[in-house]
Design a protein that fits this description.
This protein is of the alpha/beta class and 230 residues long. It has one domain: P-loop containing nucleotide triphosphate hydrolases (Rossmann fold, 3-Layer(aba) Sandwich), CATH 3.40.50. The strands form two sheets. Strands 6-7-8-3-9-10 form a six-stranded mixed sheet, with helices on both faces. The protein has a four-stranded antiparallel sheet with strand order 2-1-4-5, with helices on one face. β4 and β5 form a beta hairpin. α6 packs parallel to α7.
Length: 230
């Protein structure tokens, strides 16, 4: 289980997160929603170690990881699919996938399920990452995260700028990973219909704080949607 407790985060003198707490469990998709600029990506950056905390704890499998470097968190089973994908444009698809090996001590092989979920990647192994479409790059970014065999997968707006057919593929992949029951999935999303289809729990953010949270059955659609519109 992932437990974020009373997390504060600053960029220099500017505080962007205040006392944020939430929990995410294996076999569930926990979706963080909110308008642009409310702190969703900053929260993810704090969890994966790309931004130091100003206060609070991040408990992963019962241990506080707030003081660990990003690569140490990756070796503890935390994978991050960032907003904008951040694949290596000059490396081939195969080389991009193999870059996930850095987090592994053994089993340095691309899992078959990567190609089962995203068969287009198998046909493009020798193509450069920068030559792929945006949707294909998103599939590659998720595939690269899967190569690390994570116990916690964190995805930052995986549907942003993606064509509908690939959004369906991404949703199917997230559902498959969730239904295996072994992985904690933390998803930041602004597309409500996509989030509602997948999420088991919601946390809605505004101005650096969690203002609504609960299971899907507890969250009224209109209450969530009014915090997504400008």
């Amino acid at each position: 289980m992932l437990a974020i407790e009373n997390l504060d985060l600053k960029y220099g003198a500017a505080q962007v997160l205040w006392n944020v707490s939430l929990k995410a469990e294996a076999g569930q998709v926990t979706c963080i929603m909110g308008r642009n600029g409310v702190g969703k990506t900053s929260l993810l950056r704090g969890v994966v170690g790309q931004q130091p905390l100003a206060g609070g704890r991040i408990l992963w499998q019962g241990k506080d990881i707030a003081g660990l470097a990003p690569f140490e968190r990756a070796r503890r089973g935390i994978a991050y699919v960032p907003q904008g994908r951040e694949i290596f444009p000059l490396l081939t698809v195969k080389e991009n996938l193999e870059s996930g090996f850095a987090a592994l001590k053994s089993k340095k092989a691309i899992p078959d399920e990567v190609f089962e979920l995203f068969p287009v990647l198998k046909t493009m192994l020798s193509r450069r990452g920068g030559d792929l479409s945006g949707g294909q790059q998103q599939q590659l970014a998720i595939g690269r995260a899967m190569v690390t065999r994570p116990s916690l997968m964190i995805l930052d707006e995986p549907t942003e700028g993606i064509q509908p057919s690939i959004i369906k593929d991404i949703g199917r992949a997230i559902r498959y990973l969730r239904d295996k029951g072994e992985m904690v999935i933390l998803l930041v999303e602004q597309y409500y219909d996509f989030a509602h289809e997948l999420a088991d729990r919601f946390a809605v953010m505004d101005r650096g704080q969690v203002i609504l949270s609960g299971s899907k059955s507890e969250m009224l659609e209109q209450n969530v949607r009014r915090h997504l519109t400008v």
